[in-house]
Design a protein that fits this description.
Number of helices of chain B: 13
Largest sheet of chain B: 5 strands, mixed
Structural class of chain A: mainly alpha
Largest sheet of chain A: 2 strands, antiparallel
Radius of gyration of chain B: 35 Å
Strand content of chain A: under 5%
Number of domains of chain A: 1
CATH topology of chain A: Cytochrome C Oxidase, Chain A
Structural class of chain B: alpha+beta
Helix content of chain B: 40-55%
CATH architecture of chain A: Up-down Bundle
Distance between the termini of chain B: 90 Å
CATH class of the largest domain in chain B: Mainly Beta
Number of strands of chain A: 2
Number of domains of chain B: 4
Oligomer: heterodimer
CATH superfamily of chain A: Cytochrome c oxidase-like, subunit I domain
Number of helices of chain A: 18
Amino acid sequence: MSTAALHAEHEAHHEHKESFISKYVFSMDHKMISKQFLITGIVMGMIGMIMSLLFRLQLAWPDDQFSIIETLLGKWGVDGKLDPNFYMGLVTIHGTIMVFYVLTAGLSGTFSNLLIPLQVGARDMASPFMNMLSYWFFFMSSVVLLISVGVETGPASGGWTVYPPLSALDKAMPGSGLGMTLWLVAIVLFIVSSLLGGINYISTVLNQRTKGMSMNRLPLTIWAFFFTAVLGLLSFPVLLGAGLFLIFDRSFGTSFYLSDIYLEGVGALENIGGSPVLYQHLFWFLGHPEVYIILMPALGITSEVISCNARKPIFGYTAMIISLLGISFLSFIVWGHHMFITGMNPFLGSVFMILTLIIAVPSAVKAFNYLTTLWKGNLRFTPAMLFSIGLVSFFISGGLTGIYLGNAALDIQMHDSYFVVAHFHLVMGSAAIFGMFAGIYHWFPRMYGRMMNNTLGYFHFWITFICAYLVFFPMHFMGLAGVPRRYYQFTLVEQFDVWIDVNKLITVSAIVAGAAQLLFLYNFFVSVFRGKKAAQNPWGANTLEWSSPIDVRLHGNWPGDLPTVYRGPYEYSRPDREEDFFPQYVPDESAPEVLEPEKAKSAPAEKEVEEESSVFFAAIKRVFGLG
Amino acid sequence: MTITLNRVLRNSLSKKVLTAFSLILAPVFAMAADVVEPPQEFNPMAWDWSTLLTLALMLLVILVIARAFDIGSLTEKISGKRLVSPHKINGWVAIIFLVLGLIGVWYEMVYHGKHVLLNDAASEHGAVYDSMFMWTFGFTFVVFIITEVLLFYFMFRYSYDENRKALYYFHNNKLEVIWTVVPAIVLTFLVLRGFNTWSKITSADNEDAQEIEVFAYQFGWKARYAGADNKFGDNSFTFISGSNPLGLAVEGSIDELSQSLTDEIAALEALIASADDSAAVWSARLKDFEAQGRQRAYPEAYKKIREMAMDAESGAYVRSLEKEIKRKSTNIKRIAKFRADQNMFNKSAYDDKVVTEIVLVKNQPYVFKFRARDVIHSAYMPEFRAQMNCVPGMSTQFAFTPIKSTDEARAEKGNPEYDYYLYCNKICGAAHYNMKIKITVVDNQAQYETWLAQQAPVVAPVEAPAVEADPASDTTSQATPAVAFN
């Protein structure tokens, strides 16, 4: 341990004594909060995955009984046979958990929290207290959602999009009773958590950057987290509104979404004048940006990991930022492509089609830039690198099928078919989870000061990668044959009989992929306690987080002064340097020839930096009437 | 010495890697083999615990291999020489994956591709649709192959070498402009074509199209044909009753509904009047139950009784009854309001035919009007490249012309049992997976008319002479005609 680190530790102790509660439970240190998000995310992810395996068993062997289903589900799995209502519940909760709890909070929460202060050179988030609240709202939300699975009438079961009237009427489906109420409560808590986190991320990135860290020197991870937070901040309130209207319709007799309904066993309802399509508009106004809220942090992580492990500057840094910006902007005006066949005006459909297909351009730029970054690189295959490359592969295969689904005409046939399932599981499910794994393997030393086992990581990657393709690739063909999604079993329709083998293949691959995650869990938890001690900068990376002492937990990140930034984050393999990396925080003592004029500029004067961020700061002050 | 060790380790390592992979993927390949050949007797019970056991065993093997690698790297450290580079191994695995993956893609296209409905559309616009699909497929498939091949080839070609330095290459504006502009051009083409296809499909010429109403409810479909007058009778959700599932404007059925609602309200009011007594009864019953100590033996019954007693005591029971009364009286009021509207009750609903099978005539254009009764459903007719949501409170439509009769499709598929179906494709409840209606496309108008003649109209026609003889005195008998639904 260096003397500086010791000194820092001493200082930290001096400033505030930490009890177990304030250190591990209600911690305000962004590094601890990121670990809390990560562990919660992993637990939720395992639950979501097990749910998917249960309903996959049903789809592959609809006529057989599995004692494991009865053991786990009790009255919903009498005689080892999954109940159709609970099948819907599992599908719904699997979707909710994966979309919101794992890939939004688990991914963004973990890495935004860990990396934003460390990579911009801040002591902590702008508001550590709000940051802590953000985690605990998320935790409460997770608990409420898990409780909802156990209620007597079953969990919410109208699909993760919970379209009313199905989700509004408990007589239409048992899951729309208490289970749905709890689902809504969980989502409202989740939105609060997400907003608290988002405001923090944005203000930290804009205001807390260290000396020399101008916006065009930010790592792409930070750019991605920043845009993600902006998207969340603008779109989650709309979901909150949609959810509140739904709560009103369910409990207080309003008719926002309900009109002209007759229910078997009840009779004609009083509600008139509402529109179920209104909900869909409100939901997808969040729902589509949500897809990018999931994907963009993963893309940011991939940019960083690929550049670092290819020992090569990321190709087209500016183009990457512009494409992120383009994707963020466009993501707000394409929600209608989820609704081509809801009876929306066909002209509106064509507008949404054009806007949707434009998104393919910035996405293509990203994919090509990743490929060019790999070209003539010196690829070091750490597990993180493999997962990043896996992400690029999924991003391409899943992204291309988006061109089919974004086309209003083609969507007529493919809407809600297995083609859609294949598409989004590849491009946002698998891709984002691979981004998360890449992040975990890459920043594990930064989080725990120890290394994970590489060999287990390799096995984890290859098995998961192969199985993910085995699971999702054949689904495209099922979808093209008109097999609808969210069906409890397919044996009642003769046309679908040919797909029973495929369903078996998919289920078996999913089980193998699930088993491979046990390798990851083993690797993760054993390495936390018994992994090899990590070096200060184990990957030879350029970014600031590797300058903060790795072997001591320090609330404040750097002992003494904050580091100064002298150049951009991707100076790998500079021909004028012996080492193949050149950290942002290392001053240029030899003052070599200027290779990239805009990149190799020396640190700007402090005044200059202040000016740039003070514009935002002043604007925020004015809006909120501060100061 | 080191050289020998080097060779041994390298060999054993690569062997171990291969063994581990084959072990892990064995069940998957076994399944793939199952797919190639018609699946043999498959015992899923065997997948119960023994699978988990097998998987656990495999994980153990992987852990052992990981140890072996650790020992390998330790040897490297001691001997100071690189024995086997994980980067090279991963590069090779990437190439193997690429080759196997491409074979897999080809296999899928050939084997499962034939089950896909492509170029097999049973409707006129289906050909337009399929050509749009093929253009999109062409472009995306080329991009898919090129980019994925490059990705895995780069993994192999540029795997880590200590003696090499990566190219310091920040950006190239020309290159970036090219791959912004080229996708933009391709997408412009696809957008224009898609726009064209979409307008063609959605603005189908409806001049001489026949209208069919498709009605969705939990969990089934009904279709309505206009009948002899070629006019659909009016409808409202307030008219729906057991004997009038579509809520058609048929006086008799509606008056009956009004009457039964009034009766139900009276019954509910009687319940409210005796609510105090019933509260006493329930609490007495609960006390009895508890006194006899039967809670343990009959937990379900106990729960029920306790709930009833609590509801009665808190007034929740009365409130729920009052709510029901309010709902029912609203319904009665609405019916009365509609009842005054003579335009609505012009008897055009009487000859409508409500059927449980859709019969279409080949080459005849149709406009489908969709309605839903309770929640959102989606009418999905994949063979016809048609889909439209059915939304309560809203009427939606889709127009198409069938061009392939059921018999032709059967001959083509070589399956005499083959039928077209309309499926529900929007999650709608527990039996969503079993919500379908058969579509039969007949070859000519005559076949259709024969079928239609066999279907009963909504209201069985009253014998003509009787009506004409004394229309004034017959209103009462007409007001309660036999309602004949399937």
